Amino acid sequence: MDPPFLHELAKDAIATHPSDTAKVINHIVTNLTATYGTKHINPRQDEWVFNNAGGAMGGMYIIHASVTEYIFIFGTPLGTEGHTGRLTVDDYFHILEGEQWAYAPPSLKKEASRVYGPGSVHHLRRGQVKQYKMHENCFALEYARGWILPLLPFGLADGLTSTLDIPTLWNTAYITAREVTRNLLAGKI
User: Fold this and answer.
1) How far is C-alpha 81 from the geometric centre of its chain's CA atoms?
2) Whole-angstrom Cα distance, residue 59 to residue 73?
3) Does the chain have fewer CB atoms within 10 Å around its N or its C terminus?
4) Can you say how many angstroms the Cα of residue 100 is from the centroid of all Cα atoms in its chain?
């Protein structure tokens, strides 16, 4: 999948459906399904789970998961903040609604005094680490490219060590395994 294509798709969805995140998400999923097919895209738009990772909490809808890529919607109407994790992938966080801030030491200010708003992309390069904050009503299309499997401990650890939310961990693991397996069977690594 192509980061510039996903960026244009996110911007088109926002322009077509301003102030309606549900329609923005539907627009994205409909277009991804038309482009890549149901072998690679999870069309179940009601299949949301909680996600706790790096101290941040929100809702997550897994659109695509394979060994080398994932696409999901992450966000919350309440706001959250946390640690990005030191990822083994390039991560593209396309803001669909709301705003995100980022911070990395040794600076004493938020990243380049930049606010990531609707239509912008926060690109976290492989190996980078930051603190981030998503304000109220912030949702994003997140795309990661690289070796995905080492990310699973980061994505699941808070559920095992902090929230102890075993049903959510089970659902997240089940959906992820189902989508990775579907993609492997379709020849997508």
Assistant:
1) 14
2) 8
3) C
4) 13
